[in-house]
Specification:
The protein is an alpha+beta fold. It has a nine-stranded mixed β-sheet, with no helix packed on it. The chain has a seven-stranded mixed β-sheet with strand order 17-18-19-20-21-22-23. The chain has a five-stranded mixed beta barrel with strand order 1-3-5-7-6. The radius of gyration is 30 Å and the shape is globular. Mean pLDDT is about 85; it is low at about 1-5.
Amino acid sequence: MKLLNLPRQPFVGLAGMAGLGIILADFSPLPPSALLAISIVVALCCVILLRWPRVIATYAIAALGFFLLHDLQTSNTEGQQLAAQLGNRPRVVTATGIVVSEPKIAPNGFATFLLRLESIELEGGNERTSATWLVRWRGTPEYGNELRLFGSAEVIAPPRNPGEFDMRAYLARRDVRRSLFVRYPEEGGLLRHGAGNPVLRAAQKSRGWMQNALCRGLDDSPQVQNFLSGIVLGVRHQTPEDIEEPFQQTGTLHLFAVAGLHVGIVAALLWMLAMVARLSRKWATALIIPTLFFYAAVTGLHVSSVRAAVMTSILLGGFFFERKVFVLNSLAAAAFFLLCWNTNELFSAGFQLSFAVVGAIILFADPLFGFLRRWAAPDPFLPPTLLRGPRRMMHIGFEWLFRATSVSLAAWIGSLPFILWYFHIVTPISLFANLVVVPIAFFVLAVALLSLISTSLLPWLAVVFNNANWFLARLVLGIVQLFAQIPDGHFYVDHPHWSQDDIARITVLDVGPGATVHLRPRGADWLFDCGSERNYQRVVRPYLHWAGINRLDGLLLTHGDSLHIGGATELLRDFPRVRLIDNPAPDRSTIHQQLQRLLQQHGIKTDHLVAGDSFRLSREVTGHVLFPPRVLLTNVSDDQAYVIQLVVAPSTSILFMSDSGEKTENSLAAYGLNLRSDIIIKGQHHSGQFGSDRFLDAVQPQLIIATSRDFPEYERISDEWAEQVRARGIKLFRQDETGAVTVRVGRDGWEAQSYLTGETFRSSSR
């Protein structure tokens, strides 16, 4: 128990009690009157503790103190006050404030950044405020600019689909409660440069200079530029997803998050330079510590980099004060000081992952190393001096391998619970990938440091170093891609939930005017449409990961609308062995034609089903194609869309209409088919004409799940039609109100639940 000896490592207990107090305060907030009483009690206890110090009492007061601190930081904040004043509807305002985050420029030209307000003008009045808003503006702001912007202040939207990132909750932890949308460049103006924190402003300018220096001579290699900017400077928002995804799948994405590895390498390199310059330990420590904090500022002051800088500074401080420093106590001290700065950091994924990984390495790496080294340990009675030649080299190699393996395994154990919770992925291949990639990353950072040092003195030498890093970057990218392709090297796991004996589960994702429906009968996974390319990347792919889907059994493409099939190319790259059912009706869709050519080039077989055909999704679920017929005289994509009747044993039927309109409905009625179905799942026809009385009489649904959007107008369900549906006793789930909808079908009936509102509708016997 020496490791946890409380008098020698006091911050371990203090950090634990701080976390406990914050969690209790977050789940059980108190009214302002109670906060005042707790403040008085804490103050009295502190006075008593100074007179009669006790360890347990100290920890209790720490918990109470952080309970109070978290309540004070999250109650009646500036952001909450302004949000309550504005209400929940969009408001047109003129806002003046200072840019306090690095703007991220999207491909469409919009810059996204945080603006700390100074004042807002609303309905003729001017009000001072220090709240922070998220701003989107088609301009070119910089950190520290003071801006005047005219736009619409809107409520930050919650996630509308399972697996979607909850930006609203993420920003609320930072007291960002509203977004400001500024549509045109001329609706914003620069008032002055140079506002904001001067240290952070200098760090931002230094980052730009460093990025240009590291990328000099690499103009024809944008992938390498993005990789170097990410791994050296933590600039992740410029890294394309197709580069980041293999790193996530191999458990090496931490290379892009400046943390202990980066700060430790930079500290080691600076220490080597200090030793070459023959500086004393105290002078070296005095110079390295502020340099590390400036490096953390350059890389964006993320929790992982600040934690690493604080922890390294405490360890180096032992040299300065000539005191022994305990690593676990240093880690706990870093957590304690970060929570003093902002208690909400406890709930961020970065904080949890950073401290869990380092804590696991401290606690488990040495025991694991001791266990592994037994496999290749020499005879314990053999003196080390007798180990010579190849045998000695082999012993040293095994020592290094087992040490690296123990660290990698300990880090994997520490990160696994949080990786499962936040990313739904398990990466056993990371144990091997990190052994290869991390040593190369050390040389990448070392060469980058040499490049930065030589840029001002010998520019030609800096270009040489950059080209050396080009080779190392290409090597890392190739190795990571190779590891990502290894079968079962990574796999996704379903989100935690109570298991239910469903015959089928159907999730109708909310992807705007497009469509994606996930069907999960027992033992199979199918998609009907996959959304646009953008929606596949932002909604569908995260959902598939959240649902733990590693193999897709089938993909059905209803028609050539790019909002329905635009993501098919990327989906087929993710799931190359999927069965593909494509609509054979000829259309003028460029996206559809490009997809068909791609399928022919890669020799991917496609099933072309027409009315009268059937396909089996599982033993209890069968799809029947009702439309289009083999011969169809129309080139309008919406009038060619598949209509599928899904029959789920024993007695449930669901009608998938895609974007079919009144013309298709009339054709189905004319065919004399049995259209009776419990549920209709449909999009919007471009004409806005659908859901006729004749068609609804033929189907007699209990529930209609329909897409709906305000723009364009024909994508919105009219109030008149919605009222007619309700008058018939049919439940309408319109997705502009419900978000995604999940239907669970069992032997005794079915139920549908809205993701956004939680509303549940259950079937009734007919």
